[in-house]
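Thread: Newbie trying to understand structure tokens

Hi all, I'm a second-year student working on a class project, and my supervisor (Dr. K.) asked me to get a predicted structure for one chain before our next meeting. I've only ever worked with sequences, so writing a 3D structure as a token string is new to me. If someone could post the tokens and maybe explain what I'm looking at, I'd be very grateful. Here's the chain:
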Amino acid sequence: MKIINKMAVTGLGVILMGSSVFAQSLTDAKKAIDAEQFQKAKSMLKNLTVTESSKADNYFYLGWVYIKQDYPDSAKAQFQKGLNVDPKSALNYVGLGVVAHLDKDAAGTVSNFNQAIALAGKDTKPYVYMGKGYLLPVGGAVNPTPVDAHAALDVLNKGVTATAVKDKKHKDDPAASTDPEIYMTLGEADRILVMSNDAYTNFSTAQTLDPKSPAVYVALGVLWKYADNFEDAEKQFQQALGIDPNYGPAYREWAETDYRWAITVPTYADAKIKEAVQQYQKYLSLTDTSPESEMRYADFLINAGDYKTLQQVATDLSKTASSNLRVYRYLMIAAYENKDYPAALAAGNTWLTKADPKRLIPLDYIYLGRTQLALKDSTGIATLNKALSLDSTRTPIYGEIAAFYYSQAKWALAGDSYSVYIAKGGRKVTLNDYFKAGYSYYRAGIAGTKTDTVLLNKADSAFSYVQHKMATPPPVILISRARANDAKDLDRNNIKGLAKPYYEQYIAMMTDPTAFSADEKASMVEAYDYLGNYYFYKEKDMAKATDFYTKAHGLDPTDKVSSDFFKRKPGTKSK
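---
Reply by user tm_fold:
Sure, no problem. This is what the structure looks like when written as tokens:
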């Protein structure tokens, strides 16, 4: 009897446990998605696709979770299953369109979205998720493009029109949608396009339709965050948590607001960075302890510049059998920034060789290329050029390529690379880049057995640009122009004196011998010797020549040029 009773109790427990699972509805799963509890939502939805296998919406929302977790192939499989269950499921056509959008398949996106619109009728959700799909960043970008944000606005506004109903209490008001989510998504598109007033209007409409939604308060907080109104942003997050203390996205956005606050107001930096980390840890505790949530944390750590923590998080994730391969991107970035180049190279090679090529982004090639160059591997140049072929707007890479050649004393390549960077880099180009271009061309011009005046002219042109852009150019510019022009004076027995004005300007600028560095002292001796030679050999002015040689000898009694002069008899023609 006791055994039977134990079995009965055990069976009752199983029945009760099972009933609690089966009681979970699609509404519960959608709430979990909204709260960014994706693992919980996935578990619910997998169960629903078994217990309610004939409902196409279950497959769509499971696919949407896979989209949010960066598994587009798994998402596509669910959308196809949804259409197998119901060939007229507008939402699952939306899902296929979103996958096509993420694959940069514009034709596939439009085709599937048009099919969804044809089937949607008065249902707002297909329009909402088409809008959300357009607002997903593509190809590793941080934000959607303005083109995609405008596409989201277009389809969402079509949804408002198609699903509008008249307000029976206010018959004079125009018809409008009653779905707060469509206005939330409109507001998000407006915010991305920096149409803040429109965003506020749409978020406020959503709030009117659903005043108990914590998501609306979070959206308003984000709007204030980007206006750098951090105090009011905090208040919105606090109001969201007042409605639902366990609403994780409020803590995530609060953390990111604290981070922006820290970099905007440096006096608050230490306190706000610390607070941001605490808020993000709270977010993680309320969502999922899963590889996907840890990767969202990794994104935050990149923004916060906490590469030490990022490397630890990424290393731990890489040891998890079920982790997303994308963890190696984070590990590569963190290890590179922490100057752990061998680890960065290993992670980068793993990511770029094993990931689906569709998942690779320019940043992947940038960090792998940087790592290779840091290890003195010139194949990094080809890797960085691959990044440029994918995104030509990443113009600072030209400067990185030039800097590598410069560090390796590959002067002609460095000069040409700096010239490309100067032509394409826009406002990020500095006068120091012009100087390095000039110096590279100067060194290349004198490197061969025959002086290359074409390269020397390029050098002087770059030095000249710097000189004329500065009210008081540094002495190094003048001595550099002097050397480049002296090198162009090819007939040493009949010099033209091309360098003379620059050596004279250099001497005029260097007025305090007691403050000379060793290099400046050597440059002054060089200038005096040049002018001594100029007046002795070209102008035949013994007095001026003697004056300059005397000054050179005074600064450096071991100087060979001036010493040789004083050893010779006046009037000698010996050179």
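A couple of things are worth pointing out once you decode it. Residues 75 and 119 are 21 Å apart (CA to CA). The chain has a mean pLDDT of 90. Feel free to ask follow-ups in this thread.
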